[in-house]
Design brief:
Elements lengths: L1 H19 L4 H9 L6 H7 L2 H21 L9 H10 L4 H18 L9 H20 L3 H15 L1 H35 L1 H6 E10 L2 H11 L10 E9 L10 H19 L10 E2 L12 E7 L3 E9 H10 L3 H7 L12 H4 L12 E3 L8 E3 L28 H4 L3 H13 L2 E6 L2 E6 L4 H7 L11 E3 L2 E2 L11 E4 L6 H11 L13
Pfam family, one: RelA_SpoT
Organism: Erythrolobus madagascarensis
InterPro entries: NT_sf, RelA_SpoT
Length: 514
């Protein structure tokens, strides 16, 4: 009775969180039935095939999460590789979102006690929230869920630091929220009053954010700074839509993009004093980052001399920064690069750390002479989750990624799922020795062992797939985990183990296997 009541409360909590994220009906039904003892036939008959399919997809995600969590330390896969394996384990992004919400609910039910940080199991789960669940929420553009996952883990792993930061941020929270809104409106007015800005830019979207507790903590640790030295605690992102070049005569579109940003920044500096005599001003348009990121950054003083960071970029630059790298790892593999693996060095490229969300943010046109300004768009697509800027259904055609990909997709969800879908056409993704491997659909365990791991016939009986022994003819499936059981001591076992951990370098002679 007690166990049944607890299960019901958990299911209700999952459904409540999914509803808060404005997930659709099938997601809510799947959340209610995630841990229920109900047969597939009953679910299909009484609930529907769509909810059942989502539950099956979520089961695949849960399998990967559980298998990788139980791996021993010496064979633990790299964090980035595991994230990508989870994303490829489901064709439907909602299955991943359901797993993330379930992780929050499990934490609340089992590890929310004040002394949770003293429990080894709770600390391991908290570390898992930071290394896997929160980054996955980021990858899907679910900023609020990411923030909640991070702060739950932060409070467990660093309780005193979390409490101290919560107090410091709480003292400024209301003031910062008012400053952001006032400054946002002031930027809109300043741009609209500028004749040159109106001639270059047709509309602008502006979004503010207050840095999360865990993000502040990480920055303090990384840069060895105090709380009062974190000058981007509040920030505005200003995204410009330049006018079509043809309406401005013979103008280079790229030059027009740059000119729009530089002039907007000029307007900003004419209104607000720069913080630190401009030492924090950065030009990533003239000097793009290695991953293609372009934007102008500055920090100005607003209100009672409070530092506020402003980032200026065009819509095209924003798409590349937000989405172009969001699916970078799968896009790379869809190009069939040989022997490529994903590691921590790719973190900046594949995991855009962003706390801004433009959901429901209307574009303000600069054409209106009225200071109230006209607003363009703003309606959420019907049938889509309002937590995202567009419906994943738009990417369901299955077409491979193309060069104009960033112009056709509006949300992180679409990018990840479209790249996933393109990848699934011809490849499966498996994990072995902490590395991701992309192999052709239909490849067997024997193919993988011979061509990738370079193992001999005598070693085949030590291979496992998802923790179980299978015959060499077993066909590998998406998100399988291939392991190698130790064969005791000796040089042969050491060499075999080394073959797994070094399997990322694939000789060109076996490239046909890819």
């Amino acid at each position: 009775e007690c166990a049944s009541e607890s299960s019901l409360l958990r299911a209700m909590s999952v459904v409540s969180m999914l509803a808060d994220l404005r997930m659709d009906c099938d997601a809510l039904l799947a959340g209610a039935l995630k841990d229920a003892s109900v047969s597939d036939d009953d679910i299909e008959l009484n609930v529907g095939i769509d909810a059942l399919q989502l539950l099956r997809e979520n089961a695949s995600v849960s399998r990967v999460v559980e298998l990788t969590a139980s791996m021993k330390d010496e064979a633990a896969a790299e964090a980035v590789a595991i994230r990508h394996l989870v994303l490829t384990s489901a064709a439907d992004w909602r299955a991943v979102a359901l797993e993330l919400v379930d992780a929050v609910v499990r934490w609340r039910f089992y590890y929310s006690a004040p002394d949770a940080g003293e429990q080894p199991q709770a600390r391991r789960f908290a570390e898992r929230l930071l290394s896997l669940h929160a980054p996955l929420a980021n990858q899907l553009g679910m900023w609020s869920l990411q923030s909640e996952l991070e702060e739950l883990a932060f409070e467990c792993l660093h309780p005193s630091e979390c409490a101290h930061l919560r107090m410091l941020v709480g003292e400024r929270l209301e003031e910062c929220a008012v400053l952001l809104e006032d400054t946002k409106r002031a930027v809109e007015v300043a741009l609209r009053r500028s004749k040159e800005a109106r001639s270059l830019v047709s509309s602008v979207r502006i979004k503010g954010r207050i840095k999360g507790l865990y993000s502040i903590f990480k920055k303090m640790q990384r840069s060895r700074k105090s709380f009062n030295e974190i000058y981007d605690m509040v920030a505005l992102r200003i995204v410009l839509s330049p006018r079509v070049a043809s309406s401005l005569g013979e103008r280079d579109p790229e030059a027009l993009e740059r000119e729009s940003c530089y002039h907007a920044m000029k307007v900003i500096h004419s209104v607000w004093k720069q913080f630190g005599d401009g030492q924090r001003e950065k030009d990533f348009i003239a000097n793009p980052k290695s991953n293609g990121y372009q934007s102008l950054h500055t920090t100005v003083l607003v209100g009672d001399d409070i530092p506020l960071e402003m980032q200026v970029r065009t819509t095209k630059m924003h798409r590349i920064a937000e989405f172009g790298r969001a699916a970078h790892w799968m896009y790379k593999e869809c190009s069939y690069e040989q022997g490529a693996v994903v590691d921590e060095d790719e973190e900046e490229k594949v995991l855009p750390r962003d706390e801004f969300s433009f959901e429901g943010i209307d574009a303000v046109t600069l054409d209106e002479p009225s200071l109230g300004g006209g607003r363009v768009g703003g309606a959420s697509p019907s049938g889509s989750c309002d937590a995202f800027s567009s419906s994943p259904a738009a990417s369901s055609s299955g077409s491979p990624l193309e060069s104009h990909f960033t112009e056709n997709v509006e949300s992180h969800v679409e990018y990840v799922m479209a790249a996933n879908q393109a990848l699934r056409k011809n490849h499966v993704v498996i994990l072995s020795g902490g590395k991701l491997h992309y192999v052709k659909t239909g490849s067997t365990l024997l193919d993988f062992a011979m061509h990738r791991l370079k193992l001999g016939d005598d070693d085949l009986d030590r291979l496992t797939v998802n923790g179980e022994r299978v015959p060499p003819s077993h066909e590998l499936n998406m998100s399988d985990i291939v392991g190698l059981k130790r064969a005791g001591s000796g040089a042969r076992a050491a060499a075999a183990a080394a073959a797994v951990s070094m399997s990322s370098s694939v000789p060109s002679s076996v490239s046909s296997f890819l």
